[in-house]
User: What shape does this take?
Amino acid sequence: MERTGTDQTELDRAIIEYADIEMEVARLVDGRMNHVCATCRKPCCRADVCAQAIECWFLLQVSRHVHGQWWPKDWQSRKDPFAMTENGCLLKAGRPLICRSFVCDAYTEAYGSLWEAVFLSFVSDLLFLAGQITRSVSVESLDESKAPAYASRLRQRLAEARQQLDLAKRLLDPAETELDKHRVALKLLCLAPRCFRATMRRAILDRIGD
Ligand code: SF4
Assistant: This one.
C-alpha cells in the first residue's frame, strides 16, 4: 500500500516527483510527432526496451505509482513492443530513459517553429539528465537497497528539472512576446546546455536561418 503525507519517505517523494515531471512531459510532448512515427519504416520501439521499464527497479516504482500493474504476464517471452498500443506507448510515466531521449533526423526535421524546436530539444533529454544522479549512478541503475541513499540528491535534481520545465513551457505560450521567448531560450541554453545535442542544435540553427 502506498504511503501518504507524513509517512512518506524521501524516496517515496522522489518517485512521486519524478512521475509528476514525466507525466507533464508526456502531456506536452506525446502525440506531437505521431505523423513522423506513423510513416516511419523502422519503428524504434522494441520489446527489450519495454522490458527495461520492468527490470529497472526505480522505473518500475514510477510506472506502478501511475499505472498500477500494467505489464503482461508473459512479458519475458514477448517479441512485440508490449507497452505499445494503438494509441501509442501505454506508459506516460516510468518509460525507459532512451524512449524519450532517442530522436532521429526525421523527427527533428519535423519540428515546427523555432520555439517548438528549442522546447522539444530541451525536453527530450530533461529526464535523462535529471535521472543521472552522479557520474556513475542513474535512476536506471538504482535497486531497492541503494535507492534510499540517493533519494535526497535525486530530489534536488528533480527540483531543478521542474524549474527548467516550467521555464521552457513559456516557449509554447502564445501570450509570451517574441523577446521573452528569446530570453527563455537563452536561459535554457545556459542552464541546461547538455539537453541540446548536435542533432537538436542543427534543427534549431535551420530554423534561425542566415
Ligand atoms: S516508448 Fe513505450 S512501447 Fe516504445 S520502447 Fe519505450 S516503453 Fe516500449
In short: The CA atoms of residues 130 and 156 lie 9 Å apart. The pocket of iron/sulfur cluster is lined by residues 45-46, 49-50, 53, 81, 83-84, 89, 91, 95-96, 99 (CB under 6 Å). Strands lie at 84-85, 88-89. The mean pLDDT is 92.
